[in-house]
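Quick question, first post here. What does this chain look like in 3D?
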Amino acid sequence: MKYNIIHRPSFSLVEVELDAGERIKAEPGAMVSMSDNIQVQTDTGGVFKALGRVVGGERFFMNTFYADGGPGTIELAPPYTGDIEALEVEGTIYAQSGSYLASALDIEIETKFGGFKTFFAREGLFLLKLTGYDPLFLSSFGGIYKRRVENKKFVIDTGHIVAFTDGLDFNVRRIGGLKSTIFGGEGLVAEFNGNGTVYVQTRSVDSFINWLRPYLPRQSE
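> Answer (accepted):
Ran it through. Tokens below.
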């Protein structure tokens, strides 16, 4: 599988070249274009796995694309403006709901209970646990960059987390006091510690919605 990410970082799209018989699975609606020999199969991948993905904020069904009779190309993109990060997974990655775009067929997708420390976070109680040794494509709102954490704390707004590698632990807390949380424009933060990498998006969906809300038409009473 070969791939190339273009139009970064605001309107990213990934071009994936598949050899004959090679497969890639992707979120429904992610396909932008494809060769005429690319075929698609839609299924759940198992009812219990599908239900687990739904709990984690993903779709019940998933599309699998494969090249039939020769090599082919497919282009994939997320539904919102932002970047795409390609990870050559060697073990386990934990991702927030909505950041999964596509992956090689062998990447296992599970839902992991995040513990009650995530109860008040926007992302909720569950994370996606992505395990394997193949390409994985994650999407972000805004640009995406990596922050290496090595035996020191790293504090990040929960709305800016895309994913993080195994070997990191975190706690969710308020930033400052109650007044800062309510009136300071800052909400909850995740405090990471351990050894690993955090993938950060430069924009927050929550912040964008709050900025946009005053401009939306109001329903007449």
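The chain is about 10% helix and 50% strand.
The radius of gyration is 18 Å.
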